[in-house]
Amino acid sequence: MEKILAFGEIMLRLSTIDNARLDESTEFASHYGGGEANVAISLANFGHQVGFASKVPDNPLGYAVKKHLNKYGVDTSSLLFGGERLGTYYLEKGAGLRGTNVIYDRAHSSFSEMQELEWDSIELFEGVNIIHISGITPALSTKWQNLMVQLIKKAREYDVKVSLDINYRGKLWSVDECGAFIRKIAHYIDYCSAAKLDALNFFKISEKKDAGLDYYYQAIAESYPNIKVFYSTKRKVFDAQHNQLQGNLYQNGNLYQSKMYDINHIVDRVGGGDAFTAGILHGLIKYDDPQKTIDFAAAASTLKHTVSGDCNLFSEKEVQDFLDTSGEIKR
Ligand SMILES: O=C(O)C(=O)C[C@H](O)[C@H](O)CO
């Protein structure tokens, strides 16, 4: 069985209730969030062997994170304890035309303050086939940019494939900073989330009139033939509760697309991309069929929009049932 190791920061998420503004909120719903942790949990729910490497404070807040991950079957033997605080983020939930707003409170967190990779590489990569990382971690500090390069190179030494979700976060760093970093590590990546804007902004591909997504993937692959799989979602936002979503997967020179889902009652959109990424990794590991993989990933992401919190809570069978029945009552 393949083992995946997700690596990144996990945070406490405090969300406003009933779409209240943050400054008038007297109570918050609490969840845990973090792009890579969300992927780990979703993969565990699909039945994979998955670990999560991070650092949280050595206090009840950190222990609660461990319990949260363990509840879904995520291995926490690489979860370190120490440092000052658990990163937090606030989510002011949007409604109608008012979009959701994220406010980070993660400076000086145990994870972001790490000065070196505190793991023993042999233990960290023991039995691991794929490491999943995202562009959120290097956005935390220049120190983390250096550490990520070290981590990725180590992963390659141990013959571990590298999955990167670019996950650009404009509140953490600039497009230029992100692009410079992505181009620095791109030669070491096997699977990469990227859409047209990522191709233009981060891989510096020139825009070509009327070119389809496959043109951009092919152009990136010419410079980085090591990237075997590209994937992205195409999203049309009507308002905070109504989006359309379609999945794209580029493999072996071909573009595969899912159907376009009309999600007209969004409960919580955050983590939808992570659910999609987990669906892609699941498909790459389990199905030797790119069309099946993209159909599964888009369905998994669509289902995620129906539950609160960052994590996708559906099993492989539930996603498969949804693909087969599309929302019918099951009796
Ligand atoms: O934005 C971040 O840094 C997070 O990791 C929080 C959320 O979990 C993430 O954005 C969801 O993809």
Automatic annotation (TrEMBL):
Pfam families the record matches: PfkB
Carbohydrate kinase PfkB domain mapped to chain residues: 1-312
Source domain of life: Bacteria
MF terms (GO), sorted A to Z: kinase activity
InterPro entries (UniProt xref): Carb_kinase_PfkB-like (IPR052700), PfkB_dom (IPR011611), Ribokinase-like (IPR029056)
CDD domains assigned: KdgK (cd01166)
Protein keywords: Kinase, Transferase
Family: Belongs to the carbohydrate kinase PfkB family.
Name of the protein in its database record: 2-dehydro-3-deoxygluconokinase
